[in-house]
Amino acid sequence: MSLWEYANPTRFMQTSGKLLPVVTVLSLACLIVGLIWGFFFTPDDFRQGSTVKIIYLHVPSALMAINTWLMMLVTSLIWLIRRHHVSALAAKAAAPVGIAMTVIALVTGAIWGQPMWGTYWAWDPRLTSFLILFLFYLGYMALWAAIENPDTAADLTSVLCLVGSVFALLSRYAVNFWNQGLHQGASLSLDKEEHVADVFYFPLLVSIAGFVLLFLALVLLRTRTEIRNRRAGALISRERLG
Fold first, then answer.
1. Which of 125, 212, 107 is nearest to 173 (CA)?
2. Cβ-count burial of 140 within 10 angstroms (0-12 exposed, 13-18 middle, 19+ buried)?
3. Terminal CA-to-CA distance of the chain, rounded, Å?
4. What tens digit of pLDDT does each residue of 137-187 get?
5. Rounded to whole angstroms, how far apart are CA atoms 11 and 23?
6. Percent helix, strand and coil across the chain, each rounded to 5?
7. Mean pLDDT in residue range 38-54
8. Of 116 and 21, which is predicted with more confidence?
9. What integer is the mean pLDDT of 201-217?
10. What span, in angstroms and rounded, lies between the C-alpha atoms of 108 and 197?
11. d(CA 231, CA 167)
12. Is the pLDDT of residue 190 over 50?
C-alpha cells in the first residue's frame, strides 16, 4: 500500500477517524502520568528548587513548537511538489497548534527564567529566535486568512514556511551556534553525562510523549475539519453556479 493513498481525502478521513480516538486516549494517559509524576513525585533540584518542575511543560512545548513547523515544512513541500490538497490542509491545521505550543514555551520559559536569571526576558539567541518563530506562525496564519483562493494561499504559505524553517532550526540549535546567552544547553541528549538526572529524565520522556500524541490528535482533528470545510465550500459554490 502506497503512502500517497492517504493523500486522498476520503482515504484520509477513513483512516484518521479510526486513529483519532486511540491517539486521544493515549495522549491523555501520557500527559496525566507524566505531569503528575513530574510535579508530585520528583524531588526539588538542589540549585533550582521546585522551579525545575516547569521542565515538564517547557521542554515538551518547546520541542513541539519547533517540530510542528518542521512538519509544516514537509507537508508544504509535498504540496508544492505533488499538489496533494490534504498535505496543504494538514499544514494549515498544524499552525494554530504550533503557535499555542510556542506561547506555552515562551510563557513557561519566562516564569522559569525570572528566578534563575533575575529577569523574565533576555535577548538571548534561543529566546530571540523563538520569538521570531512565533511571529512567523502569526504571519503564516494571517496569510491563509487574507487570501481567498485556497490554492494560491497554499502556494504562498508554503513559501513562507520554507523561509521560517531557518528560524525553527535556529531555535533548536541556537545554543550550539552561539556560546553567549543565558539559556542552558539541551535538557535531552544522547550523551548520558549531559542530559538531566534520571529522576527528572524519565517523567520528562513521558510528558514529551504526551505532547507529541496531543499534537497528533489535534492535527488529525483540525485536518478533518479543514477537509469538511473545503467540501462544504465546494458544495456551496456548486449550488450558486447551479
1. 125
2. buried
3. 39
4. 999 999 999 998 999 999 999 999 998 887 777 666 655 555 555 455 555
5. 18
6. 80, 0, 20
7. 83
8. 21
9. 96
10. 21
11. 34
12. no
pLDDT at 191: 43
Query: What pLDDT score was predicted for residue 186?
Result: 54
Write out the chain in H/E/C secondary structure.
CCHHHHHCHHHHHHHHHHHHHHHHHHHHHHHHHHHHHHHHCCCCECCCEHHHHHHHHHHHHHHHHHHHHHHHHHHHHHHHHHCCHHHHHHHHHHHHHHHHHHHHHHHHHHHHHHHHHCCCCCCCHHHHHHHHHHHHHHHHHHHHHHCCCHHHHHHHHHHHHHHHHHHHHHHHHHHHHCCCCCCCCCCCCCCCCCCCCHHHHHHHHHHHHHHHHHHHHHHHHHHHHHHHHHHHHHHHHHHHHC
Angle at CA 46, nearest 5°, toward 45 and 47? 90
Q: Looking up cell 540549585, which residue turns up?
A: 47
- DSSP code for 9: H
Residue with the larger pLDDT of the pair 197 and 215: 215
Tell me the three cell numbers of residue 85. Answer: 490538497
Whole-angstrom CA distances from 212 to 33, 60, 164, 170, 206 are 14, 8, 21, 21, 10
Residue 80: is its pLDDT beyond 90?
yes
DSSP state of 124: -
Asked if pLDDT for residue 188 goes beyond 60, the answer is no
* pLDDT value, residue 225: 95
The dihedral sign for the CA sequence 37, 42, 48, 49: positive
What single-letter DSSP state applies at residue 197?
P
